[in-house]
Amino acid sequence: MTTLATVTLENEMDLILAYKKAIHIGNLLGLSVSTQTAFATAVSEVCREVIDKSTDGVASLGTETEDSRFFLNAKINFTAEGFNPNNEGYEYARKLIPALETVSSDQSVESVLKLGIPR
């Protein structure tokens, strides 16, 4: 993944920063305003859940190539014991973007949000 922005997720101000950076990156990539808003809202919903459950979250926003297709990505890493990815924020984010994967191991959790970039 080519990282374009990184935000530490410690408090509510970081939530706003993550949203604005996601909008800005979508704008730089030439995405429509509605697509920018959908992606940024999904990122902020997942970040809100991370801020509520953990104090050491990090969101990395960038692009990735997979099978000659480009994606706008957000990788959110944090530590939380007994984290359940079927909560309200994650469910809302799943409605906004086509791919949201969550992988947990021991105490660390990684959530990856993907949005295909139109050709």
Describe the structure in your own words.
By secondary structure, this protein is of the alpha+beta class. The chain contains three helices and five strands. Strands 1-2-3-5-4 form a five-stranded antiparallel β-sheet, covered by helices on one side. The chain is globular and about 40 Å long.
- Give the C-alpha Rg: 13 Å
Largest sheet: 5 strands, antiparallel
Q: List SSEs in N-to-C order.
A: EHHEEHEE
Q: Low-confidence parts lasting 5 or more residues at pLDDT below 50?
A: none
Helix and strand composition category: alpha+beta
Strand order of the largest sheet: 1-2-3-5-4
Strand content: 35-45%
Describe this protein with a few key phrases.
single chain, 119 residues, alpha+beta, five-stranded antiparallel β-sheet, 3 helices, 38% strand
Q: Outline of this structure?
A:
With 119 residues, the protein is an alpha+beta fold. It contains three helices and five strands. It is globular.
Q: What's the structural blueprint in terms of helices and strands?
A:
Elements: E1 2-9, H1 12-28, H2 33-53, E2 57-66, E3 69-79, H3 88-96, E4 99-105, E5 108-116
Antiparallel strand pairs: 1-2, 2-3, 3-5, 4-5
Helix pairs in contact: 1-2, 2-3
